[in-house]
Amino acid sequence: MRQQDHQAGMLAEADAWRARDLSVVWHPCTQMREHPHTLPLVPIARGDGAWLIGHDGTRYLDAVSSWWTNLFGHAEPRIGAAIATQAMALEQVMLAGFTHAPAVELAERLLAIAPRQQGRTPLSKVFYADNGSAGVEVALKMAFHWFHNRGEHRRTKFIALENGYHGETLGALAVGDIPLYRRVYAPLLTEALFAPSPDAYLAQPGESAADCAARAAEALATLLDQHAGEVCAVIVEPRVQCAGGMRMHHPDYLVRVRELCDASGAFLIADEIAVGFGRTGTLFASEQSGVMPDLLCLSKGLTGGFLPLAAVLATETIYDGFLDDARERAFLHSHSYTGNPLACAAALASLDIFRADYVLARNRATARAMAALAEPLAAHRHVADVRQAGMMLAFELTRDGDKATPFPSASRIGLKAYRAALSRGVVLRPLGDVLYWMPPYCVDEEQLQMLADVTRAAIDEATA
User: Which of 59, 112, 207, 275 could form a disulfide with 285 if both were Cys (CB 3.0 to 4.6 A apart)?
Assistant: First the structure.
């Protein structure tokens, strides 16, 4: 009876948190009318490794790493300890006119591990921001302002990829191409140019992923020719267009983009906010192409998932373009919490874990296990494609397992699969009708087996 009373008390506590939340909180990326019935609201009390634990005691396997931020598991003690230690010394100081050890040390270490390319001078400066969207804003403004300082006033355009996503602030949204996020705000956005995606899912009959990438690169070359002298930067998510449905492309594409940017005089911005820090099998996705961008945007996993922080790594050439006696030629972009010491301490601890735990080698073994568990699902009658890049694996759901027969949007198959998985203790938040696995790196064999079993059950239930 005591156990029953305890359980009843926990359920009542969870219900109380739901009610309190819905009376005051406006949630991100949510149609609030869907709460509390269509989309269940889950009050979380704590985290433990790959698990999220609700106020009612229910354990949920965090298969999406809490929006792709968490690397080593929830409540990772080494990162928590680093933040606590830093908090007792210095919690915040403005980075305009001041500096502090965590910001300097983190910049040094990021530049030491950043992608390199033979024949190119390495990335040499770090500009901090508060989150991924803000990091993209920094990179876009830097690219435009650099040309402005040189008197190249025709260079005002950006090229991005169809089906790409770079954040929700207006500048980042302007170079995004997902109608759900962009359409309403279109009148507020600067005009960008969109090149065809190298997405291998869009390959024509007989085309390989490399062929598809080559065809998309030629279309980009044409676009750059059509706007010669007008483009200040091309922005790309290397290897995976994440919010666009975990669509993946061949590494050859970025090689060609780098060549085209050099030929046209435009900068290359690599948005590795989601794909950086080991997600695709290498520390940075750009490494798989042997390419170094002019501007590299990092966030999400930068702090191991503990605190918001972004870093934009730039070349010395870009940095030098702002050095002048005139203040208006300086890069005056700022955030109150730029380079926050607590966030930088978390990021330093995260980099220590990569080195101490041989994370990339372990991830390669985990990725192989994920591939083996996903392989049987490829034969499911409603799975049109299973694709993988390192620790990122996605299932494209269609009506007949055929690319030509997507589910009607009104059927909301992805949402149904999400609810079915959640009822079985797995967080499997979809992107439309794409389900994906992006678990924390601490996930073990038993948890992966549970993930595979629940994914099959969720697809079966959603498509019944």
Answer: 275
